[in-house]
């Protein structure tokens, strides 16, 4: 029975022209605004830019001067001795010794804290 229905449906489909199934009004009707827009886009020619259009907008390129090599002062020994005289070496050494003792005590305390047993968590109460 289903094969007879399929044969009748296929015969009916062959009799109807395929073009008639679609609307011909969409093919016949054209979008004039779109065609006009595309025509104007194709015919548009941008105005030519003058040859000196970049003047005033772009700076002329100049090569930067080569860097100067560093020069050592003529009396290097006198400048080093002046620097050593100004540098507070003795005061810094005494301050560093006391700060090292304090840092060592802090480090010992921190290590003792790390080595100590972790406190046990109390049983969870639900």
Automatic annotation (TrEMBL):
Record-linked InterPro entries: ATP_synth_F0_suH
Spans annotated as Disordered: 43-75
Chain intervals with Pro residues compositional bias: 62-72
Molecular-function annotations in GO: proton-transporting ATP synthase activity, rotational mechanism
Pfam families noted in UniProt: ATP_sub_h
Domain of life: Eukaryota
Full protein name: ATP synthase complex subunit H-domain-containing protein
Organism from which the protein derives: Obba rivulosa
